[in-house]
Write a structure and sequence with these properties.
Length: 345
């Protein structure tokens, strides 16, 4: 019998079908069964691979994108990396406007992946001409044959997760999922995944994780945009200072807010307890679960699925750096970790 070579045609074929991994130690004292959908297993190490591939292929199908065209996006890093990766394989130019809050590692990675990067000030309002939204719009208007992905206001962001993340979780849990917990930034992940899951079982509870300093929770509760809610925070990719149309607020049952400090410590705890080296918002999602459990959200029969959006390697100069943690005031006498490194001279 002739043996076939077992190889993927390119890296894009590895997008999606990420594993669902049971959480054991960090949840030991908590009611319910906990499972993490670990999106770092995507080839671009984040959930954003799904939307980059889906949105670009939809544009190709509609004849909007032709070889050699330019793809533009605003991104805290992950979406940019995924778009740059897809652009390389498919032969597009990639221009990214990123927030100055993004880690230096993320910006260097985007450059490595061949993207042209504009770094824009983080603490200006969304309609300020220097904001990364306005810069991206301006570049888009200046380059003929360019496509602006616009993930915060693109319905295809929701569709990408409706078509992939939702069905995968339904299948992996054999339809036994009772709760979906996901960070909300653009809202694409939670909205698309929840839309599919609630179509299968409308009783599934859907809870979004938001940051203190973001307007999402208040908007969900009151339908009012309250600018007083806005102040700078450190978690990248979660919460927002505007209302994204890629968030379906009606499908989300509630939002839980988490702090920068507790999320950073919980991300470190995930590494030490479960061996899962995941990003800052994964720590935030797990921190949200801890709070929800204390509030009595779960019981013994709950099957809770949490989405961990990206990999820990993107935060080496931030939450996984002791100096950074100290500078933020996140290490005090109680929380400071025992020194694990000894230098032999
Ligand atoms: C690290 C990280 N976590 C969470 C999210 C939130 O996902 P979504 O934009 O689908 O709501 C993002 C996206 O912005 C992200 O980059």
């Amino acid at each position: 019998m002739k043996e076939e070579i077992k190889a993927y045609n390119n890296v894009l074929e590895l997008i999606g079908n990420t594993p669902l991994i049971k959480l054991n130690k960090i949840t030991q004292k908590m009611k319910g069964n906990y499972f993490a959908k670990v999106e770092a297993f995507n080839p671009g190490h984040s959930t954003k691979d799904r939307i980059a591939l889906y949105i670009i292929e939809e544009a190709e199908k509609k004849g909007i994108l032709k070889p050699g065209d330019t793809i533009i996006e605003t991104t805290s890093g992950n979406t940019g990396f995924s778009i740059a990766m897809v652009s390389i394989i498919k032969g597009y130019d990639c221009i990214l406007a990123v927030s100055s809050k993004s880690s230096a590692d993320k910006i260097d990675m985007l450059k490595t992946m061949g993207a042209k990067v504009y770094v824009c000030p983080a603490h200006v309002s969304a309609d300020d001409p220097r904001s990364y939204y306005e810069i991206a719009k301006k570049i888009h208007s200046e380059i003929k044959g360019s496509v602006y992905i616009n993930q915060y206001f693109n319905e295809l962001n929701i569709d990408a997760h409706y078509q992939s993340t939702g069905p995968e979780i339904w299948e992996q849990t054999a339809g036994k999922i009772t709760h979906l917990i996901a960070c909300s930034g653009t809202g694409g992940t939670i909205s698309g995944t929840a839309r599919f899951l609630k179509e299968q079982n409308p009783n599934i509870r859907v809870i979004g994780i938001d940051a203190y300093g973001s307007v999402l929770q208040k908007y969900h509760q009151t339908k009012e945009f309250d600018a007083n809610e806005i102040y700078p925070y450190r978690i990248e990719g979660l919460g927002k200072n505007l209302i994204p149309t890629a968030t379906d607020f009606n499908i989300i049952d509630k939002f839980e807010k988490v702090t920068d400090e507790s999320s950073a410590h919980t991300a470190r705890e995930l590494a030490k307890t479960e061996g899962l080296f995941v990003g800052y918002t994964s720590g935030a999602a797990m921190q949200g679960i801890k709070q929800l459990e204390e509030e009595g959200e779960f019981d013994e029969n709950s099957n809770i699925v949490v989405i961990f959006p990206d990999h820990g390697s993107r935060y080496m100069s931030k939450i996984y750096n002791d100096e950074w943690m100290s500078q933020q005031g996140f290490f005090d006498s109680e929380t400071a970790e025992i020194q694990q490194i000894e230098y032999i001279k």
